[in-house]
């Protein structure tokens, strides 16, 4: 079997950067990415046979852990009946019903293949519904790689230290207004100045693509209030948070259960209707967990807006592989398995992992802060983070350089962290005592590396 380095060399010769998504290339941490050959539960195995405790979780989908036997069986059963048909299948309806059952803010759903398509479609719908062009997003939030949403984006754009992307026409970029996250005053001022031109505000449920930066108390509710007042739509991007932080995603956690930074625990209610919610977005986008590890994402929301989509309405959207039968099978199996016990397991494992790592860092005198949004967390470095990181400027001002040695020491100790300080750590229900032991054994050395 070729080494990771040999595989990376071959890949780089034919694939730009050797990867199909930039952060995978280890650009900000250096070294050679591990080429994964298999994954099961909380572990991945690389081309050299090394087994790693995985905290990347396919960047979010692996809520149950990798290759859950019931999810794999559902995909195998679907595959045996044919791979794709370009015609409707019952699996799409069943998954749509499950999404709406969990998230009553969703009255209708359209499935696409990626989170990028979901947010792109949501923005187009908002423009179609309002007849307006401008879209407001927040610096450090990532909504996929469509032209209009890359400005000051988080995730790989933040990791690469980029302001946006080349190739985005100026005229397109000019339709996006970027505001600081968690800044209600900036939002109010923006709407006062240009409210009549704004089609939508798009925000992550909780920002988790500049590291985890939870919304300040009342921030999302205020977005809802201001957009409604000005006839604009609110798009809650739950591609990352949806079905991960709780059964009804971030919306369920915050608007229904009353999550706030001050009281970050919740009991997970399964809302039966929007009446239970303090605020309701017009549109929501989902990805990652909803596809159970297969290429599937969704846009959903109020029926009268969703029905503007073709073939009923004038807003065009389509996809050869949309609502793919294997992906809907994986998504449905995953959501059916994601019960209260799964969310409790993810929360408990996240808390244990974060506290083990945090204690190791403190023991080495490394100033840091664990930032939480439900069960999602990331570690930010430096004394400047002590009072909390509330926006992209503060997230970028941390001691980002500590992440690379920290990351590599963990990797040597058998633990795969996200290869960027700007990403959340993805824990699954399969992370148990054995994985915690590996993490605890690797943490002191990683903390020492971060201290240097
Ligand atoms: N929106 C959010 C909040 C995300 O975190 C991501 C991906 O990380 C996307 C959208 C884009 O999803 P995809 O990578 O499936 O296109």
Describe this structure in words.
The protein has 452 residues and is an alpha/beta fold. It has two domains: 177 residues, Aspartate Aminotransferase, domain 1 (Alpha-Beta Complex), CATH 3.90.1150; 269 residues, Type I PLP-dependent aspartate aminotransferase-like (Major domain) (Aspartate Aminotransferase, domain 2, 3-Layer(aba) Sandwich), CATH 3.40.640.10. It contains 15 helices and 13 strands. It has a seven-stranded mixed beta sheet with strand order 4-10-9-8-7-5-6, sandwiched between helices. It has a four-stranded mixed beta sheet with strand order 1-2-3-13. A two-stranded antiparallel ribbon has the order 11-12. A hairpin with a 2-residue loop joins strand 11 and strand 12. The longest helix is centred in the C-terminal third of the chain and has 24 residues. The chain starts with a helix and ends with a helix. Pyridoxal-5'-phosphate binds next to helix 4. It comes from Actinomyces slackii. Homodimer. Its main location: cytoplasm.
């Amino acid at each position: 079997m070729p080494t990771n380095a040999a595989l990376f060399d071959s890949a780089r010769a034919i694939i730009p950067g050797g990867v199909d998504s930039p952060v995978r290339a280890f650009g900000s941490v250096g070294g050679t990415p591990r080429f994964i050959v298999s994954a099961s539960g909380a572990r991945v195995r690389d081309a050299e046979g090394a087994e790693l405790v995985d905290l990347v979780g396919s960047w979010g989908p692996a809520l149950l852990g990798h290759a859950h036997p019931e999810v794999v069986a559902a995909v195998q059963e679907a595959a045996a009946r044919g791979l794709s048909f370009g015609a409707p299948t019952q699996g799409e309806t069943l998954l749509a019903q499950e999404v709406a059952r969990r998230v009553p803010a969703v009255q209708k759903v359209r499935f696409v293949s990626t989170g990028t398509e979901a947010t792109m479609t949501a923005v187009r719908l908002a423009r179609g519904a309002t007849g307006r062009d401008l879209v407001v997003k927040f610096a450090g939030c990532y909504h996929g790689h469509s032209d209009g949403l890359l400005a000051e984006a988080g995730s790989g754009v933040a990791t690469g230290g980029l302001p946006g992307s080349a190739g985005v026409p100026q005229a397109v970029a000019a339709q996006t207004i970027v505001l600081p996250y968690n800044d209600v005053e900036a939002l109010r001022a923006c709407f006062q100045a240009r409210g009549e031109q704004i089609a939508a505000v798009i925000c992550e449920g909780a920002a988790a693509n500049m590291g985890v930066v939870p919304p300040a108390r009342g921030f999302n509710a205020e977005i809802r209030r201001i957009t409604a007042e000005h006839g604009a739509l609110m798009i809650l991007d739950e591609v990352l948070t949806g079905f991960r932080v709780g059964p009804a995603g971030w919306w369920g956690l915050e608007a229904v259960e009353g999550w706030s930074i001050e009281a970050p625990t919740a009991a997970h209610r399964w809302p039966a209707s929007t009446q239970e919610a303090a605020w309701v977005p017009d549109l929501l986008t989902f990805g990652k967990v909803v596809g159970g590890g297969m290429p599937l994402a969704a846009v959903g929301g109020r029926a009268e807006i969703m029905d503007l989509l073709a073939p009923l309405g004038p807003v065009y959207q389509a996809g050869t592989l949309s609502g793919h039968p294997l992906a809907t099978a994986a998504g449905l199996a995953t959501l059916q398995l994601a019960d209260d016990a799964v969310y409790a397991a993810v929360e408990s494992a996240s808390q244990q992992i974060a506290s083990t790592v945090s204690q190791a860092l403190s023991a080495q005198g490394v100033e840091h802060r664990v930032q939480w949004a439900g069960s999602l967390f990331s570690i930010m470095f430096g004394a400047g983070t002590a009072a909390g990181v509330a926006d992209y400027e503060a997230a970028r001002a941390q001691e980002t350089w500590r992440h690379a040695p920290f990351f590599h020491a963990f990797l040597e100790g058998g633990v795969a962290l996200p290869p960027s300080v700007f990403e959340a750590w993805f824990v699954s229900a399969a992370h148990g005592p054995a994985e915690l032991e590996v993490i605890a054994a690797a943490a002191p050395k990683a903390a020492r590396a971060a201290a240097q």
